[in-house]
Design goal:
By secondary structure, this protein is α/β, with parallel strands linked by helices. It has 3 domains: 18-143, Rossmann fold, CATH 3.40.50.620; 145-180 and 216-299, Serine Threonine Protein Phosphatase 5, Tetratricopeptide repeat (Alpha Horseshoe); 308-486, DNA Cyclobutane Dipyrimidine Photolyase, subunit A, domain 3 (Orthogonal Bundle), CATH 1.10.579. The chain has 20 helices and 5 strands. It has a 5-stranded parallel beta sheet, sandwiched between helices. Helix 1 links the parallel strand 1 and strand 2 (44-51). Helix 5 (163-172) packs across helix 11 (279-297). The longest helix has 23 residues, at 468-490. The chain binds a DNA duplex through residues 244, 350-351, 354, 358, 393, 402-409, 412-413, 472, 476, 479-480.
Length: 491
DNA sequence: TGAAATGTTGGGGCG
DNA sequence: ACGCCCCAACATTTC
């Protein structure tokens, strides 16, 4: 067969047929079913990454996420080079780029692992039909969940709304398939299509604010496996009793690696399931599944409360309060410590995430969407499903959420989970000199202790921006208003 | 994956 | 010895 292009030149009739593996949030070679399938075709493989334009997306990548992506792409490219291949990088509308690449590189088949965000699903299904019209065979795979969201159903065939039965259904389902090993070779094409460099994507910040992030994280598949093995050996056996203490490294810290698909939940599952006492951690992995499941079945939840009555919640949007929270100057040491850990490392211990989120939503009465937006921009593990689910859970408007009237007491949480104040001292160094008692509530320290510790409240560290008891009562009152209004609407 | 208020119980001090 | 009060300690209820 001989083709003629627009200019009338003959394209080499022997132009080699190729297969594309389109990398998205699956930046790994091991247990990558789409990559595996692309290789199995026997065709030359074009590994492609496309940076999509941010305009138009409701969730453009946050700053911390961009930093991570930059380094993860570099690592992925290095791994591909070791297999005799490389990453083709492009930027622009994904559909247009792939359709153009099909012409340019004689692409016969395209493979990708599924994404589950509503915007991605819409784009991918549209693209799939366009590609099929152009005669390209498209196959998608499950690369990032243990169970497909449409497969886990209640006895009545409906989606679950409560975690525990969902968890039981997962345990009863066919176990996730064992992970596929990484390919040794990826067949390269005779001629490589043009590619941007990863640096061209300008993902790294122009002002270098990432020093703390660099220090803590090693993006990429290898870094992810290292974290997993380190966690499995050193921390997993004591996970149940250590995971709530934010000063310890008692948790896996795999969240950003999982978000970018540098490691798959199947790899984690199969590594841990044979080990004793892995249940509590795997339960957390299933919380992640549940978050993705909920987003799939309720695609409006990133914007709107799952429980519709919360649309009428009397939030008191206040830029100054929100700013005190984002700047970690609330005057509540545990809250400020968490917000500073986030700013410095791009990550926050989950126990503290609950505390700071509860504080923003229930003490400060700020809309949960504001908190979600800040996390989205600052977390290296920012993930639409997990972030949405977590915030709705805390705000009490989500599925199987903490009831609104469950209000964390920041001092009690602090004393319970950071009893020696180690976490606070690490992140709020101006309070270091306080005793283990006062460090949780410096405003109760005596003038002598404050002076000895070199603290002048209101100057070197703020007074609490809000009184706990008053805030708690106001939150309960706001919740009562919501209930009254709704019962009026219904009655 | 709460906290605070309220209720109950039982030991010990004390008149 | 006895009843009374106090108050931890624990349990239950409410938000």
């Amino acid at each position: 067969m001989c083709e003629i292009d627009d200019e009338g030149f003959h394209i080499n009739s022997n132009t080699q047929e190729t297969a594309v593996i389109w990398f998205r949030n699956d930046l790994r070679l091991a247990d990558n079913p789409a990559l595996n399938a692309a290789i199995a075709t026997g065709l030359a493989v074009l590994p492609v990454f496309i940076q999509v334009p941010e305009e138009g997306s409701q969730w453009p990548l946050g700053g911390a996420t961009k930093w991570w992506l930059h380094h993860s792409l570099k690592k992925l490219n290095e791994s591909l080079v070791k297999c005799g291949s490389k990453l083709i990088v492009r930027s622009g509308n994904a559909s247009e780029i792939l359709l153009a690449l099909v012409e340019e590189a004689n692409v016969r088949r395209i493979f990708w692992n599924r994404l589950y965000e509503p915007e991605s699903i819409a784009r991918d299904s549209d693209l799939k039909s366009k590609l099929q019209v152009s005669g390209v065979q498209v196959e998608s795979f499950n690369g990032s969940l243990l169970f497909e969201p449409w497969e886990v159903r209640t006895g009545e065939g409906k989606p679950f709304q409560v975690f525990t039965p969902f968890w039981r259904a997962c345990l009863a389902a066919n176990p996730p398939s064992p992970p596929i090993s990484a390919p040794k070779n990826v067949r390269s094409p005779e001629r490589w299509p043009v590619s941007l460099s990863i640096d061209d994507l300008m993902l790294e910040p122009t002002i270098d604010w990432a020093a703390g992030i660099r220090e803590m994280w090693t993006p990429g598949e290898q870094g992810a496996m290292q974290r997993l093995h380190n966690f499995t050996i050193d921390h997993m056996p004591k996970y149940a009793c250590q995971r709530d203490n934010p000063a310890n490294e008692g948790t896996s810290r795999l969240s950003p690696h999982m978000h970018f698909g540098e490691i798959s939940p199947r790899q984690i599952w199969h590594e841990l399931i044979p080990l004793p006492s892995s249940g509590p951690y795997l339960r957390q992995v299933i919380w992640r599944e549940f978050a993705h499941y909920m987003l799939y079945h309720h695609p409006r939840t990133p914007q709107e409360p799952f429980r519709a009555e919360f649309r009428n919640f009397p939030w008191r949007a206040d830029a100054a309060k929100l700013q005190a929270w984002t700047r970690a100057l609330t005057g509540y040491p545990l809250v400020d410590a968490g917000m500073r850990e986030l700013w410095h490392t791009g990550w926050m211990h989950n126990r503290v995430r609950m505390v700071v989120a509860s504080f923003l939503v229930k003490h400060l009465l700020q809309p949960w969407q504001e908190g979600a937006a800040w996390f989205w921009d600052t977390l290296v593990d920012a993930d639409l499903a997990n972030n949405t689910f977590g915030w709705q859970w805390v705000a009490g408007c989500g599925a199987d959420a903490a009831p609104y009237f469950r209000i964390f007491n920041p001092m009690l949480q602090s004393k319970k989970f950071d009893p020696n104040g180690d976490y606070i001292r690490r992140w709020v160094p101006e309070l270091r000199g306080l005793s283990n008692d006062s460090i949780h509530e410096p405003w109760l320290a005596t003038v002598f202790e404050l002076a000895d510790a070199g603290i002048k409240l209101g100057v070197s560290y703020p007074y609490p921006i809000i009184d706990h008891v008053a805030a708690r009562n106001a939150a309960l009152e706001a919740f009562q208003t919501l209930r009254d209004n709704n019962s009026q609407l219904n009655g």
